[in-house]
């Protein structure tokens, strides 16, 4: 009896945003506006950054939309959004080559 062995190889996602130039600029502009409106603190954490924003329904909605959109174009990033102490905290981490991309977020 002969069994075929299936081998699954996973190619890691490239460390590059998949957005086109115009869409990328729009995303950066939107993130920059959220930063101007509500970003209160930015800290380096292992593998990325922890960003703290004023908590409001509007800011939460904008951050959730950003996280969902980034998951599509930058699947190599890990994002975790949670509320604590009247702040919305977004933790963004990724592999070492993604550090410049993380640094640009909400700059």
Protein model, in words:
With 107 residues, this protein is α+β, with helices and mostly antiparallel strands. It has a domain at 39-104. Helix content is 38%, strand content 26%. Helix 1 (21-38) packs antiparallel against helix 2 (57-73). It starts with 20 loop residues before the first helix and ends with a helix.
Summary keywords:
107 residues, four-stranded antiparallel sheet
Secondary structure blueprint with pairings:
Layout lengths: L20 H18 E7 L2 E7 L2 H17 L4 E7 L2 E7 L5 H6 L3
Helix pairs in contact: 1-2
What is the structure about, briefly put?
It is built from 3 helices and 4 strands, in the order H-E-E-H-E-E-H.
Radius of gyration: 17 Å
Q: Considering DSSP H and I runs of 4 or more, what fraction of the residues is helical?
A: 25-40%
- The helix/strand order is HEEHEEH
Low-confidence stretches: 6-11
Estimate the strand proportion.
Answer: 25-35%
Structural class: alpha+beta
């Amino acid at each position: 009896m002969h069994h075929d062995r299936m081998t699954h190889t996973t190619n890691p996602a490239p460390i590059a945003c998949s957005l086109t130039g115009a869409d990328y600029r729009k995303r950066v502009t939107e993130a920059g506006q959220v930063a101007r409106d509500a970003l209160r603190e930015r800290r380096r954490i292992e593998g990325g950054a922890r960003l703290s924003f004023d908590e409001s329904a509007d800011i939460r909605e904008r951050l959730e939309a950003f996280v969902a959109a980034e998951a599509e174009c930058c699947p190599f990033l890990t994002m975790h959004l949670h509320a604590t102490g009247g702040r919305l905290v977004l933790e963004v981490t990724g592999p070492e080559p993604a550090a410049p991309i993380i640094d640009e977020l909400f700059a």
